[in-house]
Specification:
With 410 residues, this protein is an alpha+beta fold. Helix content is 53%, strand content 16%. It contains seven helices and 13 strands. Strand 4 and strand 5 form a beta hairpin. The protein is elongated and about 130 Å long. The chain starts with a strand and ends with a strand.
Length: 410
């Protein structure tokens, strides 16, 4: 009976290493750890590149050229907004002009009724003065908010803040992208007047058109020539005695007895629609002034003409602004397309950079895997070549050390 011999020189180290305990084998078997470290380093390197490409992709796609175009577009949008605000101011004026025309039409109808004897002169005088108050309220309501240089203003093209000059506001609306403007001059469509005394140069002003209610009775107040300093002389319009007025608006009247029954002569200056208090039409009493009805008819016709002319001018201005707004829309749209095109080009470049980095990573992964596979094959070959040289006696001894059962051949 024969048995495989036991080699007493085999140590536990040789047994655990398969009988090979050389340094070169250790290095060969350590290759897997080196591959893991290399793979991790490769992944980190490409991850940083891909993250950088993604970060750029999330950034706004601008260039100095696109920034300049955006600035230009912003300015144009601001100017177009001012055009729209200007159109809004004109639209508010149109609304008020419509109401004003209704009031003038009403007064013209009432004159007809007066001539037909359907209403009395006294009733019409009260109604007429009340309509002056409403006309001024409608004129004041022509104000509309307007934004200029970031600040909001109230623009009223049909009202006036001055009772001495009856001046109005002027609207400057953007006309083109070169900075030119369209000037729209206001027209006072309320009604007011003052009388400059021939002797003293003092001024008489009435508050009939600014009364707080329908029941209020107007007052004529005297001021110094500065239109501001009151002299203390006042008289209600119902106490005044109208004398005469000529075609040049030279007027004569007498103050009440409370003011010494003083006779006044002066020059009348009209503002806005040019309608006067009823007392200056002799309260429509033809027995006092035979020309009263003729004069009020002429004044109402003049007021209507001013309303129609102003409306026509404002319509032309609005049409111009609307056409300019269309031009601005076209320019702004063109700039927007150009900006988007630049942004798309930038984004395309950035997407291409991201895609290239991702593809390079995939290729590198593939090449690394291929090299690792080849390396692993070589490692296995080396280990097997070393293991194939182990003697049977070494194997048997190793198994004996590890507690294996010896194989005995008979």
């Amino acid at each position: 009976m024969a048995a495989t011999a036991f080699d007493p020189t085999i140590s536990i180290v040789n047994t655990l290493s398969g009988g090979v305990n050389s340094i070169d084998r250790v290095l060969v078997l350590a290759r897997g750890n080196a591959q893991s470290i290399a793979a991790s380093s490769l992944t980190k390197q490409f991850a940083s590149r891909i993250d950088a490409a993604l970060a750029k992709l999330d950034q706004s796609a601008t260039t100095p050229i696109s920034e300049a175009l955006l600035h230009q577009q912003s300015q144009l949008i601001s100017r177009k907004d001012r055009i729209n605000d200007s159109i809004g101011v004109l639209n508010q004026s149109f609304t008020q002009i419509g109401f004003l025309r209704n009031h003038v039409d009403y007064l013209q109808e009432q004159v007809t009724e007066l001539e037909a004897g359907n209403i009395t002169a006294a009733d019409f005088a009260v109604d007429f003065d009340n309509k002056l108050r409403k006309i001024n309220q409608l004129s004041s309501a022509g104000a509309q908010s307007f934004k200029d240089a970031g600040i909001y203003f109230q623009k009223n093209l049909i009202g006036s803040l001055s009772r001495s000059s009856f001046s109005t506001q002027t609207l400057f609306a953007p006309y083109n992208s070169d900075g030119d403007t369209l000037q729209i001059d206001g027209v006072y469509l309320g009604t007011d007047y003052y009388i400059t005394e021939d002797a003293s140069g003092d001024i008489f002003k009435s508050d009939t058109g600014y009364a707080a209610s329908e029941d209020a009775v107007g007052t004529l107040t005297e001021y110094s020539s500065d239109h501001v300093t009151a002299t203390g002389v006042t008289d209600t319009v119902t106490d005044l005695t109208f004398t005469s007025i000529d075609s040049s608006d030279n007027v004569n009247f007498t103050l009440s007895s409370g003011n010494g029954s003083t006779a006044i002569s002066g020059q009348l200056t009209r503002g806005g629609l040019g309608l006067l208090d009823a007392w200056l039409y002799a309260n429509f009493d033809t027995s006092t002034d035979s020309t009263a009805i003729t004069r009020i008819k002429a004044d109402l016709d003049e007021a209507e003409s001013l309303l129609l002319l102003t409306e026509a001018d404002f319509l032309a201005d609005r049409a111009t602004l609307q056409s300019r707004a269309t031009v601005f829309d076209t320019i702004i749209g063109g700039l927007q397309n150009e900006i988007l095109s630049i942004a798309e080009d930038i984004q395309s470049d950035r997407q291409a950079t991201l895609l290239a980095a991702e593809l390079e990573f995939q290729v590198a992964q593939f090449q690394f895997s291929l090299l690792a596979s080849r390396g692993n094959t070589l490692v296995f070959s080396l280990v097997l070549s070393q293991d194939s040289g182990i003697q049977r006696s070494t194997q048997a001894s190793s198994e004996a050390v590890l507690g294996a059962t010896l194989s005995v051949n008979v």
